[in-house]
Amino acid sequence: TYDGGLTWDSIIGGENHIGEYVSDIIINDEGTIYVSYVGYTGADQGGVFYSEDNGVTWQYSGLINHMITSLDLNSEGDVFAGCWGGVASDEWPGLYVLRNGETIWDTLITGPQIGDVAINSEGYIFFTSQWPLGVSRSKDNGETFELIDEGLPPGYHNNIVFDNNEYLYATSGDNLSRSIN
User: In this predicted model, what pLDDT tens digit does every residue of 109-133 receive, in sequence order?
Assistant: First the structure.
């Protein structure tokens, strides 16, 4: 929108992405827009696309046949993608990273069906997942992860976000939880 939301221009989607939906959007400090797609009706769906010209043109970044649910950036400009599963049977759920300046996505962890990803100012990576249930954290840029679910209600936690004081909020059904510190 160029007029405060009175009118809108569509910049991606439509005919080229039938059976898919945009699940998340991030914009880095240079203005590059990244969008993630969840596709569920066939092969050659899902993945991550980016635009360096405010959405005029789009390029495929990677992770085709992955149901990408969430994107986030760390302070180094690395793009992290949470994946719920694969459109094709040989694609795994998990967490992937596209390091700043690289063109190939690396796998950080496979297995968890990731709903959301959030990264704090210290570079700690958090994600929600169907398995394991709860919130997981990495303090070492994705080398290892630990489940941090003490005090959270049982079940699947979908969304997570940090407030300005770096408290982490997590949703689960009709529950909203906040980290103690």
Answer: 999 999 999 999 999 999 999 878 8
